[in-house]
Design a protein that fits this description.
The radius of gyration is 20 Å and the shape is globular. The protein has 13 helices and no strands. It is an enzyme of class 2 (transferase).
Length: about 290
């Protein structure tokens, strides 16, 4: 199994009518899954299992990401909203449990334990970040770093399975791709004031803004117009573009150090969407 077809395989588990009807699912973790598959598939001892390992890890990630979309409170009683919330809980549980079944069928019991441990660590990291955010004790830089750690943890589990020469390179590359992915998503959070709360821009302005501006951000009802003005004043979109450009350059420098031309080519192909995005006009700054 040399071709990458994991998103298509995953659809048989994610594309259920009931889920599609009542709620929306998070994006497929394509960058991280493709990276893991590339490293596993390049190892002759792991090639047969590379597709299975990457698939179950992506399904667990979708399950965790789906649970993240469940609202903290259950105050809204409107039937459609309540049903959507219930479906997110059930779908998240379903996706997270699939790895037990799929791995048990192939006798990969050790990997069940490995991913279970990683899931516990992800939840611990999320709780730490949640508490820091709730207490307003996180900087913009720390916010990005915590997201990178949280989003890469499941995929880091396989570091010890790889050839020794990649024990250091794989975690560095995984975190590099994950950081670019996190920043990429943060850029799109600048599109609307509704997505601004708790974003990198929020923490950046809270860290650098005046006392009055910080007060505006912490108000129970934030004025969308004021939020847009603050985002423009502090060049939130521009800074995120610059961050993405810097980190994709760093990432490709690391890729160049690998000793496999095939792997280098595959990783450049994975990172190509970031380069295409950076080459487009920065229309988000006008919002």
């Amino acid at each position: 199994m040399n071709s990458y077809r994991i998103p298509e395989i995953a659809k048989q588990y994610t594309d259920y009518d009931m889920i599609q009807t009542h709620t929306d699912l998070p994006d497929f973790p394509d960058y991280r899954t493709r990276l893991l598959f590339a490293f596993l598939n390049g190892n002759s001892k792991l090639r047969e299992s590379s597709e299975l390992f990457a698939l179950v890890t992506s399904l667990v990630q979708i399950g965790l990401d789906t649970h993240d979309r469940v609202s903290i409170t259950n105050d809204v009683k409107e039937k459609k909203v309540a049903r959507s919330r219930q479906m997110k809980v059930l779908a998240g549980d379903y996706f997270s449990s699939l790895y037990y079944n799929l791995l048990a069928q192939t006798g990969q019991i050790e990997l069940v334990s490995l991913l279970s441990t990683a899931i516990c660590e992800v939840n611990r990291q999320k709780m730490n970040l949640y508490m820091m955010m709730k207490q307003l004790k996180v900087s913009a830089e720390e916010y990005i770093q915590h997201l990178v750690e949280i989003n890469s943890e499941l995929f880091l589990s396989f570091s010890g399975y790889l050839e020794e020469m990649y024990h250091q390179a794989y975690p560095e590359l995984l975190k590099g791709f994950t950081k670019c992915e996190v920043i990429f998503k943060e850029i799109f959070r600048t599109e609307s004031a509704e997505d601004f709360q708790g974003s990198w821009g929020f923490w950046h302005i809270l860290q650098n803004g005046s006392k009055e501006e910080r007060k505006q951000l912490q108000a129970e009802e934030v004025d969308p117009l004021k939020v847009k003005m603050l985002m423009r004043k502090y060049n939130v979109s521009t800074q995120l573009y610059q961050m993405l450009d810097f980190h994709i350059t760093q990432l490709f420098t690391l890729v160049h150090k690998l000793d496999s031309d095939k792997l280098i080519s595959e990783l450049f192909h994975i990172g190509e969407p970031f380069l295409r995005f950076l080459s487009k006009p920065k229309v988000l700054e006008e919002i």
